[in-house]
């Protein structure tokens, strides 16, 4: 299937109102009871990484924060590369480690779920427990399938584009990076000369006597297709769990929304924790709690795991890890209007 630019249906936007949500204490109790039977699959979106300094695609009111999408990943990658897991990532990692929520399906390409549980799980365990639905920014492939380490590729681009490298270093020194979306795309000044940007050729292709400057991050960009293998794995994860917990996503992309619909068709309980309108609002039988995950999820995990949260040194460390670094509030988030009435 292809990933389209995220949208929320007009009907959902029309129906969305500022309703009072439950208190944090009630939310903690409700979500903890949802997790307590165990065997829960988790589906995450860009909202879980906001506290790591990575902006979500949408603001609280549902507007798409960067509708004029263009790939400018060379400058956008460093902020994602340097981002660290926040308390929500670590809380979910604790649930994974405790086998309460063994699998996470994430729409995020920032790798922060991997970073959160890296000290507890090896590469093979993480590859099994975390499905990156839309790929990862941390690796690159050429059009012939040759893999390139992302930082090595960044360095290659810097050599081929000294003026861009100098600009990137200037941004680093000034601590004034351009606004970055979760996919590593950035907003650059109007009039930026993209035609002067040089993409270095794949060194493996050159060794095979072939010129090839078609390289891209291993990310499914809007308009591209998710592989059948990833699609099948995402359905398999939903099928093998008894419940589906959704956090930090509007479910605007169909690759995620269809998993929710599948869970409902299989009569599995679904609970959403997110701020603002989501496509889940158009489905019956889904409980939705509108609170920021960072405010309550650590308390949820402590409630679910009980004394284990203190006795187990790994879980204790996970539940006391994570810093909050929210993105600057430098965008306008108007209430989106339906296209027709």
UniProtKB/TrEMBL annotation:
GO terms for molecular function: histone deacetylase activity, NAD-dependent; NAD+ binding. Residues 17-308 form the Deacetylase sirtuin-type domain. Belongs to the sirtuin family. Class I subfamily. It holds the Pfam family SIR2. PROSITE patterns: SIRTUIN. SUPFAM superfamilies: DHS-like NAD/FAD-binding domain (SSF52467). InterPro entries: DHS-like_NAD/FAD-binding_dom, NAD-dep_sirtuin_deacylases, Sirtuin, Sirtuin_cat_small_dom_sf, Ssirtuin_cat_dom. One of its GO terms (cellular component) is mitochondrion. The keyword DNA damage does not apply. It is found in: Mitochondrion. Keywords: Mitochondrion, NAD, Transferase. This is NAD-dependent protein deacylase SIR4.
